[in-house]
Every structure is written in structure tokens, then in C-alpha cells.
Amino acid sequence: MKFMGMKRVLALSLVLMFLVGSLFVMGCEPDEPTVTVGSKEFTEQLILGQLALVALEDAGIPTEDETNLGGTVVAREALERGDIGMYWEYTGTALVEFMGADVITDPEEAYATISEWDLAENDLVWLEKTPFNNTYTVMMRQEDADELGIETISDLADAINEGVPAPEPGEWTFATDHEYEARDDGLEQLQVHYDFQFEDYEVMDLGITYGALNDGMHATAMGFATDARIAEFNLVNLVDDQEFHPVYNCSPVVRQEILDEFPEIEDILNPIAVELTPEIMSSLNMKVDMEDMEPREVAEEWLLEQGFIE
Amino acid sequence: MIKLEGLTKVFPGHNIPAVKELNLEIKEGDVCVLVGPSGCGKTTTMKMINRLYEPTGGKIYIRGEDALQMDPIKLRLDIGYVIQEIGLFPHMTIEENVATVPNEKQWPKDKTREKVKEVMTLVGLDPDVFKDRYPTALSGGQRQRVGVARAMVSDPPIMLMDEPFGAVDPITRARLQNEFLRIQERMGKTIVFVTHDIDEAIKMSDTIAVMREGELIQHDTPSDLLSAPADEFVSNLVGRNRSIKRLHLIRINEILEDVSRGKPLNEDAKKDDIEKQLAESDIRSVIVVDRDNKLKGVIGVNDLKRKAGEVARDYCQDVSDTITDDATLNDALSVMLEIGEGYVAVVNEDDRYQGTITLGDLLNVVKEDS
Amino acid sequence: MLRNIWVWVGIPLIMIGIAAAIVIYSVNNPTDSIVARMLTYERVFRVIREHMGLLLVSMTGATIVGVAGGIMLSRPSLYRIGRVMETIVNIGQTVPSLAVLALFYTILGLGFRVAVFALFLYSILPILRNTFAGIDGVEHNIIEAARGMGMHPLRILTRIELPIAFPIIVAGLRTAIVINVGAATLATFIGGGGLGDLIVTGLSVHRDMIIINGAVIAAVTAILLDYLIGKVEERVVRWA
């Protein structure tokens, strides 16, 4: 589990080399210090990245847009190398994936642990965390949940264990992405923790678990709690009543030397982070996913509305 | 054998007929050559005979039977067909290529194999050497032979040949023509032969049908065509040098007796004999043969001075090329021009020396004729 | 004969051996709990089975439809449509396989069957195009010689046109298989299973071991099938 000790995969390292190489070529003007903002590849990350970019630009800080880098590891490696100056990371992800710590389900404890470690070990500063907690979620269709009286994951486990007939497709099946199936704090441990077994599960791209659930191809599905499609498809997040899933509040993670160069970054981004509730994040996600707006447009609109920029 | 009556072909989308009201009768055992400039309708006419093209109007009788009423597949199986680019099947061995029609006719395997061997030998391809080869491994001339063998294998009474010797060099071409004439002498097939080359037409044909713009202009024996062209078009086609064209009509063996010159030297002949013969020779050279009368070489005046030796064998040089006695005088002329000598040695099928003919002999023939 | 055994058994065994060695090593030496969970013999055999299923079903269908379609389009009555189809197919080929998969997900939904259907359609293209082009490319004088000697059109097709077009048809088949093995790794995105399960999982949790297992088996499958078809073709086509 040690992040830095990992050998490179051929394929991935090629991609990385290409990315790093292109970053190197693009960032070839060392004269002027610049804040390069990165992000992972999904909607929420793109919006968060743009929020930072727009706000910093507004404050007159020279920035560079390197959002949409790829997965967690790609973004993190870029940050550690200094190819990017900052990106938004989730506490739970960093604890387990980078620090190799055990799962923490208390938001404050998680934040304190990872921010102390990262500062000491890697010279990386975790700014304020968001109120929203974009954790893994187990979802059902709203009408099925209402009908069967299922509100929590424990309720679901009981229903399955008691042999309650499953809604469409008639079996207690589960749609999952590849990562959730593989993770130590993923599908297998979920079932151990709550002491139940799905009758079957199907692995697919994260982007289509919501649709697979909505279309009745699966009875339950995993997803991310702030995803716009939960509202769009009228799905419901089952409450993680036994605190199985680690918490995933989000913080801008900035390299120390960037912060030394531009100390004002802290005052610009902290007030923004603390405003981002799950409802707000969901609605911002929705604007991109459902209304086809550009992440930058969404970021500018919201920052203006909130008076963060003029 | 073949009778065309008012045969007409209009291709869809064309106003002018490709073939117009054509009447032609070809006797059994005759080679009828259709000749004319490209686009004159000669190939179209031929392809109507085996109904690769369906006539727009007119009749085709084969042995008195209405060919247009017959099943085209059956009709074609009994008509040998050779086309210009030969159209050998590249994925089949020579044996399989030649066996095409027998296989279509579902002959017993043994019979097919025997017949293929026979016909390959007939066209001068050793079956043991060639039967398992693929067409790509053959020279142009060899492929033409396979094409002819393939058309002849089921012994069809009629053969259609569309410029069958078109795609090879002139020397190979003359050789193939001569061999084909020799085969035809034995087989006596009825042949429709298409060419645009008037020399080839004169050489190969019993009768020549000259065509222009879809119409038959003249149908005659080559000799009559040369002496009495029907109109200016035909006489232009035949050309001014009609005398030379006559060289196509005469075979070497027809004149060889009349031009007897000294006997060839045996390879063991002494120097004195060589000198004596050379002095008498009108070509300043003497031919040398071995005990079996096979051609050994030639000794020129200079060879005797330049080289040292006892007997003829020591002096003699290889000859550049020879000609077979069934070739035409025109072929002999070609060879002489090719090798740059005023004479050529004549051999028979078994490579035995038959005599020598010179440019002078050819001149005499042309003179006598005109 | 000895050489033959080497060609048909030796080289394939070496390739399979390399893949097997990698699988055995990584199953027995997992670097952590994730690798241990995601790389078991049971799981590896399952994804291989699924992958072969995707491949065989889609390729069988695509070969039948592609060759039959190519033959039909090469007949004189449909020839013009054939030329148009050739262009359409060439354009179709430029659509990325992931896009084809995505398209069929939105129309037909999830799972193995949808993945098979998308792969089937995607693999038809090179086979159809090459069959048509192969038959179309048979020299005119060869066909005319066959007709002129009295061969029936159906016999011309089976004895002349198809054998001569065979190497080109096989080339299309090989292209289709190599594309198919690669494209089938994308089936995992719509729940189709297969080797893509390993590759995409490995990528998402950054475990090289898992990726390598999936990628090596996929590569060996593609190389092996291409190799064997090539060898069969060599044996059949001795005239070129």
C-alpha cells in the first residue's frame, strides 16, 4: 500500500511520461512563478479546479490550467513532482491511498491526521475542508426504498438476509465500478461489515452505475454521494449508519513553496471551501452533467453569485 | 461448321452497333482469322460465338444447330477458349489449370490425368516438370502454351483464340505460332482466331476476315487477299510491301531442296577439307555437324586463321540461333536480322541439320513471286 | 515433420507458457491485499473464459455475416451498392471501438450480450470490406477465361473467386481478430466482463500486477490467434 514504493506500470508510466513531458514543455517559462492547478478527471474535480483557477486569477495570481489530469494517482504524482502546484483532494482517499493509514470515519479526525502527515512528510498544505463529504454511497431507486422501508445500509442488509423479494430485476444485484470492487474499503468489506451478501454484482464503468440502477438493470448500485444523477434519476443514498465508508471531505492541497510565494492563496480559497455544502456541490455538478455547461462557466457563475469575485 | 447470319450486337447505351449484320461461314478444319483495327468488332464477334455476349440480332449455327437455343454452359464446354492475357488461374497448379474443362465435365480422374499429360506434351511442356508448378513460376511463353493446352484438353472441335500469342516477345511468338500450326495440322480443328496483326493473320490462317467498324469487308484466303484486296482499306491494312508479306505464306521446308548448297562438314574433318569447303561457300562460312547430323557449330574464314587446331571441332564456334524447317521464310528473315548474319542454319524438330538458307534465297523467292 | 510440431505446438506453447508464468507468479506473490483479492486463479480463468466468449461469439458471427455480405455485394447486381458500402465501411472503421460500445450501451443497455453485439458489428467491417475487395480484385480476364470455358457462375465463385480472394479475406479476418481482442477489453465498461476487468481494475487502483496480467493475456491471445491463422493461411495458399 505504500504509494511511493510502487513500481510503475508500463502503460501508466508511458501515459505519465507523456503528461509530464508535455507539462514540462508547456511550463518552460521559469521566469515568472505560476500556480498550476490540476484535477482528476470527473465533473466535481473539474468544477473544483475551475473554482480555484477563477478565484486565483481574479486576485491577480498567474495561473495555469492543468485540470483533467487523470486518476487519483496521476494527479497526486504530478503534485509531488511539482508539475502542478495544487489540486483538490479528498481526506479519505489520501489517508488510505497515500498515507496507508486505516480508515477513519470521523471528518475532523481524518482531516487532522492527513494534513499533519502530509505537511511533515511531503511539504504539502491542506487548506480548509469542504462541508460536503463525497464518499462512496450505496443507492436504491427512491420508490423501491420507500416501498420496502429501506433507509440505511443496515435496512438493506436485513432485507436481503430476511429474503425480502428484490425490486427490478428481481434479484438483489449490485452495480459497481472497478475501483470499488477492488478497494480494501470497498464492496467485499462492505458486505463483511454489514454482514450480508448481494446475490450478484456486475462491474462496469463508474459513469453508468446510476443509469443501470435507474433503468432497472440492477436493484442497487454504488456511486458518489454528490453526483448530480442521484437527484436527476430520483435515486436515494442509503445512510451509512455503521460508518463503514471513510469520509471524503475535500480540500485544496497546495505545495508549501507555492504558498510561500503566494501566501494570499489561503485567504482566497478557504472561504470558498467552507461554502461548499453537499447540496451546492450537487447542483454545480448537475449544471455540468445535465445542463451541458462548461465547468469554468459554472465556477464563474457561482463565484460571482456568492460575491467571491466581481 | 460455324455459320453467322446477320449477326448484330448493340451494347446498351451505344447508338452504333459494335457488330452489324455480319455473315460469315467457316468450314470444318479451317483457321479463320478475324483481323482489323481495335474496336472493329472482331472480339465482340468471337465472344458471341460462345455467347459471352448475347447477340442483339441474327443467328449463329454450329454444325447446323442454332447455338442461341443451346444452354450456354454446355455450348462453352465444347468450345476451346484462349484469351489474350491467358487468364490462367493463379491459385491452381498447371495440371489443375489444364484440367479445368474435364473437371467441369466431371471426367473420371484417371482419364483427366492422362489427357492432361498428353496435351501438355503436345504443346511442348514436360508434364513431369511443369504439372505441379503454379502459373507465377512460368515464363510468358510457357503460360501461353498452358493456355492453349487448357483450351484443347477436352478435344473440342471448335476453338476460339483471342490474340493468344499477344503478350510475348516476337521470337517466342513466332516459335509458338509455328508449333501451333504444327499441332493444328495434326488436329484439324475449326478455329476462330482474333488478331490485329496482319502478318500473324496471313501466317496462321486458311481464311482471313477483315473487319472495320463492325462490318465484314472481305473474307478470303490470304493469297487472294494479298493479290486482290477488296478496297483501299484492305489494301492499306495489308500494306505496300505485299511481296515481303508473301514470306509469311511459304515454309522453309518448301524451298530447302531448291537451295541445296554443299554438305556440312563432319566435326572430324581435316584443315585441308575445311579450307576447300570455305573457298566454295557463298556465305564465307561452313556448318559443322556431328556423327548424328546434329548441329555442332560454324567455322568462318577468320576462325581458321585465328585459332590453332587439327580438325573442324577445334575451329568451330557456336551458332547464335537456328530455325526449324516448319517456320516461314519471314521467320527466317527475322532470325537473320536478329543475329546479324546473312544466313541461318535450318534444323528439324529433333535438332538435326537440314540445310542453310541465305538472304539471297529469300530475295529469289520474292522475285519469282512478283 | 519435427519443424511442423515446433510451428504448431512449440511456439504457441512458449507464448502460453510466458503468460502462465506471469499469472502463476503474481497469484502466488501478491504485493498487497488488493492484488490478492483481484488476482486469483478463479478470477483469471473467469475473465479469460469471458474474453474468449466475447471473441468467439462475435468473431463467428462477424465472419459469417462479413464473408456472406462481401460475396453478395460483389455480385454484379449489387456491385454498385458494394462500392458505396466500401466507403461507408471505411468511414465506420474510423469510429473508435469505445464509441461503438457507448452507442450500444445507450441503445441496448448493459452486459455480455450487448458487448458481443457491439464487437460483432465492429468486426464485420474489416471482414466485409476485405471479402468485397478480394473478390473485386480478381482479374477480369481470369473470370472471363472461366466463363468462356463453361464454368457455372456458382462454380466460378467457389473455385475461382473465393480461393483467389482467400488471402485478402484472411487478412481481414486477422485484422478483425486483433481489433476484437483489443476492443473486447473495453467490454468491462458496460459490464461485459473479460480481460478488461483486470486491466481497468488495475488502472483504477494503480496495481501494476493486475494490469500486466490482463494486458499480457490479451496480447498473447491476439498474437497467438494471428500467428496460427497466418500459419493456416501459409499452408492453404501455396501459390502466391
Q: How is this structure best described in words?
A:
The complex is a heterotrimer of chains A (about 300), B (about 375) and C (about 240). With about 300 residues, chain A is of the alpha/beta class. Chain A has helices at about 10-25, 45-60, 70-80, 90-100, 105-120, 140-150, 155-160, 180, 185-195, 210-215, 230, 255-260, 265-275, 280-290, 295-305; strands at about 35-40, 65-70, 85-90, 125, 135-140, 175, 200-205, 220-225, 235, 250-255. Helix content of chain A is about 50%, strand content about 15%. The radius of gyration of chain A is 20 Å and the shape is globular. Chain A starts with 9 loop residues before the first helix and ends in a 5-residue tail after the last helix. Mean pLDDT of chain A is about 85; it is low at about 1-10. Chain B is an alpha/beta fold and about 375 residues long. Chain B has helices at about 40-50, 70-75, 95-100, 100-105, 110-120, 125-130, 140-150, 170-185, 200-205, 220-225, 230-240, 240-245, 250-255, 270-280, 300-305, 310-315, 330-340, 360-370; strands at about 1-10, 20-25, 30-35, 55-60, 65, 80, 160, 190-195, 205-210, 215-220, 265, 285-290, 295-300, 320-325, 345, 355-360. Chain C is mostly helical and about 240 residues long. Chain C has one domain (about 1-235): MetI-like (MetI-like fold, Orthogonal Bundle). In chain C, about 85% of the residues lie in helices and about 0% in strands. Chain C has helices at about 1-30, 35-40, 40-75, 80-95, 95-110, 110-135, 140-150, 155-185, 195-205, 210-235. The radius of gyration of chain C is 21 Å and the shape is flat. Chains A and C meet through helix 1 and helix 8 of A and helix 2, helix 9 and helix 10 of C.
